[in-house]
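The material for today's practical consists of a large collection of protein records. A record pairs a protein's sequence with a compact description of its fold. Instead of coordinates, the fold is spelled out as a row of discrete tokens. We will come back to this pairing of sequence and fold again and again. Here is such a record, shown just as it appears in the course material.
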Amino acid sequence: MHMKTLQRLVVCLLILLATSNAIAQSKEAEKLYQLGVQQADKRYFDDAISNLSKAIKLFPQYKAAYSLRGFCFFEKSEYEISRQDYERVLQIDPTDVTANYYLGRTLFYREDFNKAISFFRKVLHSDFERDAYWWIASVYRDYNINYDSAIHYFNQMIRIDPSDMHAFYQRARCYLAKKDYDKAINDLNHVIKKENWSWPFRTRSEIYWIQGKQVEAIDDLSRAIVIDPTRFDDYIARGWKYRFMGNFAAADQDYLKAKSLEPGNFEAYRSLGTSYWSQKKYEEAIGVFEEAIRNTNDNSAYLFKARIRKQQGEYQKSDSEYTHYFEKINKASNHEHIPVLVRLERWELAKTYALNYLHNNPEFIAYDGDNLEECFLRIVSEDIPQNQWAKAIQKIDKTFADNAKLVADKTNKWEIYIDLLVLKGRLLEKLNKFDQAKDVYDQALAIHALQPDVISSITALPRRSEIANDKALPEIYLISPEPSRGLQIVGGGSQLQLVGKAKDVSGIAFVTINGKRIDKIEEDGLFTTTLSFKPGANNILITATDKKGNKATKTFLVTGNAVAKKQTEEDIIVPVSTNGGTPQYHAIIIAAKDYTDSRIQDLENPVKDAAEFKTILETNYTFNPDNIETLYNKSREEIMQSIIQKSNALGENDNLVIFYAGHGIAEKDRFGDVDGYWIPSSAIKGNTATYISTDDIRKSLKRSMSKHILVIADACFSGAFTRELSSDAEVGIQKQYNVPSRKIMASGNLEPVPDNSRFIYYLKKSLKENKQKYLTAKKLFDGFYEAILNNSDTSPQYAAIKNVGDEGGEFVFIKK
């Protein structure tokens, strides 16, 4: 065979073999493609993609495989990979309609809107035409904000399919955006006739509301709700409309329904809480936002609680809520927290927050007198720290003048307007312009009555005026020992405690006793020192100087007995009140064992200890069971109400024991002073507004007329109640009883104490085993003090409660 012929034969055989292989690969690719089609139909996109990729590897120009794989990636929202497959399709066939359409979609989702439109336009007059018009119209309406162009493309959709109610509805939304309300309503009416959809009623309701057709607007929303009763936001929208019209009952029902549909959505709580707030149902509003804290992750609930508490005039609680809110969001306090701090007279912290806020908000940098918030912040951060009170008042007056319309109608930012009025009143007081201050305070109260600090300021103005003009001399009293009365002194030169009181309208600066200066003067004017007394006449020279520099001097004669005599029970005079009646004994017994906040550990013994203490008082001492009130696992509000009502109801013939067993805590303020707290069962961990502070107890007892009040506290850090006033004087029961007392007996000082308390054990044991007819609280305490020190790590305390009228007397238990 000729060589050339043989070569041609080999080439033909190779071509035949290659063709056979190509056909085989093509058939295999087709099988894989068809399998991919079936899997894509069932939405098994990952399996489909795997088989289509194998088909493409066998047949790299397989346009249908690229197109279907692009669709699978698109349905998986992997738009970038989908775009690459459709671009490959267009390389193979630039006229492919499907590729142009889906490339437009992928570019739309990449927000490359103008380029997306160019691809959509390439598929007009094809099977994708209507959808292309839809996407083009959406770009013009929602992103290019070209409503006329959007309407043009929705018109094209309607031309293609006059029964397309979606196109009519979307065109109506464009007319609404253009404020062409009549055309919008015509389209919506057309849709409402053809379809039973909730959307057109919802949109027509919006238009009716804009047009002032409030009844029609609510009726349309109601029809939308009938069609689709599961939409949370429809109830919120209708509730807002009801509320605007003053129908709060209907509004609140809608908000409650919305809350039941989506209990984890804060918007329902916000709507319901602010509705209650606007109706001045403050506690109901607080309850809603506390529920929101438990059920949602939105920390705004703390912010709303802070605002409501401020409007209630509960500034301490408001401050606590603001602090919680800003701790939760890990940000510095904002400008609305600062007026609360000013109301609490926490000037340094208010100044710090104001400076930080001005620094972080440069739009406030240049004060020009036309911003109420800025005026307030600049006065707090600049003028008050420099005592520039007159300058600050000028700023306030200028701001009011520059905001004349706001000041006239008080409809916008009225709270900061009131805060500025009150601040102006405070500054006028600093300048001793008390009449002007009262006028300003009256204006503030006329706008909003719930301002207890302003009411207190008005009440105190006459006294402030009197203090400013004080020229009167201080009054001086000797409480113990009584002047011109016998003392029991063991030998000459005995050291005994002297207790006195100095009173003056402007306050006492200091006292001297026989030339020795006493600087430690309690708020109520009480002072104490230790003096040496000799048998016979002892002259005590007391000089008191008030804070205005007025000085008074008074001499007291005290006679001491030369012979010491040991007091026996027969010498003790039975305690009677000054009016001759038998002392009446009352008790409030409080125990916190079970806590609603799971973060606070429950205790085992408080209720058991409290019940046993109650039994001892009823069985062994002159406590009538009708006069004993038990508060086991009660809320803060219930406890404080009981203490205040009881202490206010008692007279000079009455004695009161307040017993508390439960958790306690102490915190230092920025001045280093310690605030102690009892933690009731309803407390929220970390929220001191839900605790009972030592200050709460002091305020509730301060105006009580009762002869003696004894607080017994088995709680950590209860020593924060006390003041440094000892009770070591050896005096008779009658004398100790006749002098008023306000004492605290605590299981520990500023320290934790255990649940299984040795203090309670020895307290109950001593009361049970006591054989004396009359037992002072001091002797009771002294009887087990050493035992507690020897058997526990705590240091029990017994002393006078700070600033509530203790004059050195003693609570006396009378045994049955």
In short: The two ends are 145 Å apart (CA to CA).
